[in-house]
Amino acid sequence: MTEEQLKTRTKQFALRIVKLSAALPRSRECDVVGRQILRSGTPVGANYRSACRARSTADFISKLGIVLEAADETLYWLEILIESNLVPGKRLSDLLNEADELVAIFVASLVTSKNNKSKIL
After folding, report:
1. What CA–CA distance (Å, rounded) separates 48 from 63?
2. Higher pLDDT, residue 87 or 121
3. Phi, psi of 24 (to 5 degrees)
4. Structural domain boundaries, residue 39
5. What is the CATH number of the domain that holds 26?
6. 56 in the Ramachandran plot: left (φ > 0), alpha (ψ -120 to 50) or beta?
7. What is the CA radius of gyration of the chain?
8. What is the pLDDT of residue 85?
9. Is 100 helix (H, G, I), strand (E, B) or coil?
10. Number of separate domains in the chain
11. What pLDDT does residue 117 have?
């Protein structure tokens, strides 16, 4: 996957998170989780774009770590929505799968970047 494709994919992910947040049932629990998932899911793409503009390998690794944290936190909140029965799992399965794939992509990218950095040193 190219850098541009991943930028597009992470932006689409953020847009899906926004739509999910807007569509959640109106309850105290959904409001709290909705705010959390909106806060964690929307910066994935923005922080990835920032990582792509890193000034060094160390800067890239640091920024990509932030991307991974946001994607993983979003995955957590999606699991909370499902496991608390606030939203049917079937309704969130595609978004849950996308969050899981993004986490895997960013973990692999971090491992590769760290391995490449150690070869340079």
Report:
1. 7
2. 87
3. -65, 145
4. 3-120
5. 1.20.1440.60
6. beta
7. 15
8. 96
9. helix
10. 1
11. 72
